Amino acid sequence: MLPPAFRRLCARCGRGSGRGSFATTAFTLKASGPAAPEQTLFVVGLNGGKFFGQDGSEECLKLLERVADHQPDYHLLFGLNAKEFSRLEEDYQVKGGRLTPSRELTTVEDGEVVPILQAGKVDKRPCSALGRSVKTTQGHVAWRLWRNPREVMRLYWVFWRRKNYKDAARFKFWSQNVPLTSHVYFGESSELIAIRTVEHLISQRREGKGGSTILTVRNDVFASVAERCGHYLGDEETVAQLADPAFSEVLKDHAAALVKDVPDMTPLLVLIYLGFPLLFLHQVALFCEYLLSRDSAPDRKSGGAEFDLVTANRD
User: Fold this and answer.
1) Does some domain include residue 193?
2) How far apart are the C-alpha atoms of 180 and 154, rounded to whole Å?
3) Residue 285 domain-assigned?
4) 126-183 pLDDT, tens per residue?
5) Is residue 72 part of a domain?
6) How many structural domains compose the chain?
7) Are 213 and 41 in contact (CB under 8 A)?
8) How far apart are CA 159 and CA 271, in angstroms?
């Protein structure tokens, strides 16, 4: 059970439903003796480029402030991959203990994460990235598309509508149109984030450290990450497995499979499903142009008289 202060906070935030002030859910790992104190995990979803209002950075900062007041030794985890995290960390360092104004972050990719990251740096709290690299994700997605040509064909018309959907609606859009490939992109990424979060909690538990952990993810994977965290932390029986070394090995093996590089079939997919159709259309256009030029050309017959005229002019 959550401490009283956190119960009130989660009720105000819309715990477990993704509604209310912002998308959030919480899990509590009960203490199992002095060596394993109680732990609390908050999973927070943010909309891309949103800093104020529902699902914005401001609401997450309020949660962070409340957590810091009750448990200063908190940890920050992010659903970004290591490259994205390092870029934000290097480009937006805290200067003079002040956060970067939101107006300077509106056009920055993943800019909504910067205020939370900087707040953690001000409090001198550890921050970690848990996401999968873009290269690995691209390889897994391309491999699934290669094995499912029917979903590749759907991309011809789905691709042009993709920008109409963002955040949680983006997950729903892709899941409805290309469910198998969507699972690889969203489902596997969410599973990896959840596993690495559980591994972090296990590590802290073995060191006898309790406190709170705040995991911040994009809203397009929030529901999946929350569901997978609930799978590992949702009841006392599964929480009891965290102390089992064999369970940790299972998690490591699963995570290793999710980050394993596979042959990137993207060049072949582009060649077969984009290059060849364009080449065919190009040849059809050339053939039509040839037919039109042949039909419109005058029917000229050369003869000896015409040749004599030409040679006479030369003389």
Assistant:
1) yes
2) 12
3) no
4) 999 999 999 999 999 999 999 999 999 999 888 889 889 999 999 999 999 999 999 9
5) yes
6) 1
7) yes
8) 17
